[in-house]
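Run log, item B.
One chain of 656 residues. Sequence copied directly from the ordering sheet:
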Amino acid sequence: MRRAMAAAVAVAISAATAADPAARPPWEGRYKIRPDQKARLTPADVVGPDGLVYPNWTRCGVPGGIPKVAVGARIEAFGGKANDGVDDSAALDRACRAVGGKGGGAVLLGPGTYHLDRPVTVGHDGVVIRGAGRDRTKVVFRYAIGKAGATFYTPKAGARIGRDTPIELHCSPAGLMKMTISFGSTAIKVWTRSKHSGNTFNMSTTGRAAAAVLPDGPAKLSGLAEYRDGSKRRCSIPVVIDSKHADRTPVAYSTAAICFRGRGAAGPKLPLAADGKRGDMKLTLRSTEGLRAGDRIVLDGPATPRWKTLTRNACKWGFYRRYQLRVERVGGRTVHVNQPLRLEFPTVDGSTVQEIRPIRRCGVEGLTIEQTENLWITSVLFLNAWECWARDVKVRMCGRQPVYALYAKWCEIRDCVFDDAHFKGGGGTAYVGWERSCDCLMENVEAFRFRHGPLFQWAASGCVIRKGVFHESDAQWHSGWTNENLIEQCVVTSVRGHGGYGYGMWASPPEDTAHGPNGPRNVVYNCDIRSQRAGLWMGGMNENWLILHNRFVVDRGPGVFAKTASFDHILRGNVFVLKDGRSPMVQLATPDCIGVEVIDNRLVGGGGKLLGGAAEAAVVRGNKVEQRGKGAGGRPRPAVASIYEWQQSRAAGGRH
C-alpha cells in the first residue's frame, strides 16, 4: 500500500511539473524516503514507528548524560564571600583557574548573593561553576560603563601596548552611532552603526595598528562615542607603546557574564577531494596532514555564488552548511568520523575540513544569574565548546541571550528558567535556542517574554528542543540553512509584544537579506502552538519537513503557509483551530510547493477549507472538519508521545 501511495505521489508531482515549469523546485528532493527504499537509507536516517523516515537524534546532548563533578574548590578560599556586596569576579576567576589547572572540578558557591563587576572567562576543561540551587544561590552581574558613558575595558592606564595587546572600548549603547579608538590624532579603529547592530556597546582591536604607525614611547589612548542626538562622550588613558612587548595578559570575554571558551580553529583548512554525501562516515581529502584519531574537526561547505543561486539565497553573510565531528581514524587521504553527515558537502563549493580545539566537559549548575545593566551581554555562553551544560539555572533579565552556545557540539541545557531580557530589538537578541551548534539538547526549559524561542539558526544541525514552555515568544528557524532539528512536546504562545513576529512558528525566506533560507527535514512533533498569525510560516527552500501530531490554535491566518519551493513536506495527525473563519488549513502559495502530503489532520473553523493557494497537495487523505463545540480542537494523542525518546530507547549501545 505504501509503495502504491508513493507511486501515486510521484505521478502527481510529475504531472504538475510537466504542466507548469514553474512548479519545479531548483533541485531534486533527497529527503523524502520510504522505509522500503533500502538503498537510500543511511546511518543518518531512522525509520520511525509510524513508517516515516526521521533524522537520527540518538546522539544528542552530553555523552552519557550530565556527569556529577566532584567539588574542587570553594569560592571563599579565593576571597569570595556571599552577601557582602563586594565584587567576587576576581575570586571566581582565581578559583576556576585553580581547579582547571588541576584537571577540573566544581567551584562551589554557597547560599546567598554574590556579585560580579567584571565578566569571567573559563578556559580550562572540566570546570563547573555550581551553586547551592537556583533558589539559594544568586549571582548579580552588575558590570556597568559608568556615568561618563565611555571607558576602556582593556588595557589599564599605564599599560604597555605591544602588537598583540588587546584594546577594547565600551560605550553606553542607547543611540550610539559611531565609535573611534585613537592614539593622539591617529585613529586606528572606527565602528559605525548598521541595520543589524542591535545594542552594540563595544569595539575591539589590537596594538598592531598603533605599532605600525607610531614610535615607541608614551602615548594617549583615546575613545570617542558619537550619538544620534549629536552628543559625544570621550575617555582617555596614558599608555606606553612598546612594539617589542609580548602581551599574554588574559582578558575576559566581554560579551558574556560567564563564558566557557575554547580555542576554536587550530589548523589549516584541508579541501575535500571527493564530495561528502549525506550519510557518509568517511571523508576523502586532498591531504590529511596533521590530522589524527581523536581530533575534533569542522566540516564546512562555503556559501558560494553557485550554491546561493541554487537556493536563491539573498543573505550577504552567515553560516550555512557546517558540521562538527570527531576523527576516529586516518588512513592515507581518508578520514573516518564518528557520525554520518546530515548534508552534502560538495567539492564544487570548495568544502573543507579544519581541526578545532573546543573547551570540554564544563558546566554551570544550581544558581540564578541576574543582570542589572542594559548591555548586550549574554549571561552564560559556551563558545567553541563540546560536552558542556547548564542545569538548574535561572536567568533574570539577560542583556542578550540567557544561556547560549556558539560553535558547540553535544552541549545540553536542561531544567532551567529564563525570565525576560533587557533588550529585544533587532540584531540578534533575546533568543532561546541553538546557533552554529550540532547535536545539542535543550530539555525542560521555561522561558518568559523572549523575542524568539524555541529557536535554531546559522547552521544549527541535528539539535533537539523538547518539553519546553515558551511564554510570549515565537518558535523560529531563524536563519542559515538549519537542518534536521527537532522541536517536540513544547508549548509555545506567540505574541508580537516582545519582538516576535506573531506567527506560531516561522522559517526565514530566501529573499531575506539578513537571514537566508533554512534547510531540509526539520521536525515538529506533538507540540501545542498558539499564535496571532499563521501557525507555521515557511518562507521557502524547505525540503521534507515533518509536521506531526501538533495542535495549532491560530487567531488569524492559515494553519500552515508555505511558499517558494517549500516542498515534500508531510503534515500528519495535526489539529488546526482557525479562528478567523476563512483561512485554509494549509496554504501552498506558489506552484513549486510540490510533493506535500496532508493526511489525517483535523480542522476546526477556517470556513472548513482544507487547502488553498497555487499548488495542489500530492496526497490529501483522512482529514476531518469538525464543528466548534465541546471537545472540538483537543490536542492529538499520538501512539508514541516522543519520537526522541523512542529513538533513544532503541539506540544500540546507549546514547553515545
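Observations after the first pass:
- The longest helix spans residues 2-19.
- Residues 267-349 form one domain.
Flagged for discussion on Thursday.
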